[in-house]
Amino acid sequence: MTNKIKSRALTAYKSRLILLIIFLIGSETLVFGQAGTVTAPSATASSFATYVSIPPATSSGIPNISYPLLSLPTKSKDVTFNFSLQYHPNNISNQHQASDVGLGWSLFGGGIITRYIYGKADESTGYAGSPFEDDDEYFYNFFGNSGRFKFQRQQNGTYKVVHHSQNALQIDFVSTPISGMPLGINPTTITIKDGNGISYIFSTMSYTRYSNFFARGTLHLTKIQDQNGTEIASLEYKKIPFGPLNGNTNGYYYTITLEKATANGLGTVEFGIGNDPGLDFTRSDMAQINSVKLKNYRGETIRQCVLEYLFRVHQPRWPRFPNTESVRFLKKLDFLGSDNVVVEKYAFDYIHRNHDADGDHFDYYGFSKQSYSNTPESGRNGVLEKVTLPTGGQIIYDFMSNKIEHEYGYNDVYFS
Fold first, then answer.
1. How far is CA 129 from CA 30, 57, 151, 253, 379, in A?
2. Which residues contact 362 (CB under 8 A, 6 or more apart)?
3. pLDDT for the residue numbered 153
4. Helix and strand counts by DSSP (H, E) for the chain
5. Rounded to whole angstroms, how far apart are CA atoms 403 and 410?
6. What would the mean pLDDT of 277-303 be, rounded to a whole number?
7. What pTM, to 2 d.p., does this model score?
8. Residue 122 contacts residue 151 (beta carbons within 8 Å)
9. Burial, 24: exposed, middle or buried (Cβ in 10 Å; 0-12, 13-18, 19+)?
10. What is the pLDDT of the chain when averaged over all its residues?
11. pLDDT at 229
């Protein structure tokens, strides 16, 4: 049977469509362990963890907002690259940075394992498993699979994987000790095998930059093997070095973004990436995905997507930062055929309000508010409000702020 490359066109609507979705903006629960702090991964990587913590579902009040981009099959019937843009309203607070496709948006279709560091990183302390609740937590998202796990240190000094999600995935790892840190765990390769016997190998590392240090933050999917161990697909990434930190000017530390996905012998999906070093230490990822192209095995472009952005002031960054910091928002998504002619257009609009000059007006979970009341209405600022479809029809979202009582203590947050 011959595999053919297909593109997943978005469904066009023949008439004007208005979809009203009422949503109570909830919040992610932050866990404070070890040294009492939580260190989140990079902008693009951290956006995926929200889909594990608060998955889109009727029960959670989170609508499934997803726009398919391009599809690329492999020589295995069990594996197909399906790239899409997905939106999550809980990724817009001022504790979240804008990803490489805009605030609240994530590019799905590749694979990522990211972690949240609770206090000191496990590789630096050998703290994993003692006590267990203070271990760093790993989140994975790839090819329709998502979940979380931790590494737990055993009495004999070895580590085992403890699953926090119910699935049939098998997780193996290779740890490379760091000099001077013999007790810690430093996974440099993680292999996840699904129920069909397909192995997904994560071995491309990126780093996360914080206020005064760098840390190993995320492992990215590097290759895929079938049931016989034959490589059927690979992924390549563009390294984007951070600027100097504490006098360190070498290019060893970097973040990365997906640049190319290859289905061996069939074709590729290639990403046009922009890089703005001036966005280092801001609420926007330095990388920006400007285009996505589907090519056949001869390198001919079959279909492509072009993304357009706008930058504007959003919520004050946490902790207090100037309100003049602009944030990346996805503005337009155009689909072009092999002749470079636009065949579909989508436009995105967001609620936009000017902010109070007082940067302290935000709640514990990072949503800004007009006053210290129980209803932070301006938490809706920056949330997706309208999608204009190729036919001129519109999908309108009405996201409503939740009410909370805040006693200004880490454990004194309640929802009504």
1. 19, 32, 7, 28, 37
2. 93, 94, 315, 316, 318, 368, 369, 376
3. 78
4. 2, 25
5. 17
6. 90
7. 0.77
8. yes
9. middle
10. 75
11. 96
**3-state DSSP helix/strand/coil % of the chain, to nearest 5:** 5, 45, 45
Strand 105-108 and strand 80-87: the pairing is: antiparallel
193 pLDDT tier (thresholds 50, 70, 90): very high
Please give the structure tokens belonging to residue 170. Answer: 């098998």
How many other CB atoms sit within 10 Å of the CB of residue 384? 26
From 33, 237, 36, 46, select the one nearest 138 (Cα to Cα). 46
- Say how far apart CA 280 and CA 214 lie, in whole Å: 13
Q: Which two tokens stand for residue 386?
A: 């309208």
pLDDT (tens digit per residue) in 132-170: 455 788 889 999 898 989 888 777 777 888 888 888 899
Enumerate the H helices of 54-134 as residue ranges.
122-125
Q: Please tell me what DSSP assigns to residue 179.
A: T
Per the model's pLDDT, the better-predicted residue between 368 and 121 turns out to be 121
Asked if pLDDT for residue 202 goes beyond 70, the answer is: yes
| Peptide bond between residue 244 and the one before it cis (omega within 30 degrees of 0) | no
- Answer whether 305's CB lies under 8 Å from 290's CB: no
Please give the distance of CA 19 from its chain centroid, rounded to a whole number.
Answer: 26
What's at 3, amino acid-wise?
N
- Kindly tell me if the per-residue pLDDT of 34 is higher than 50: no
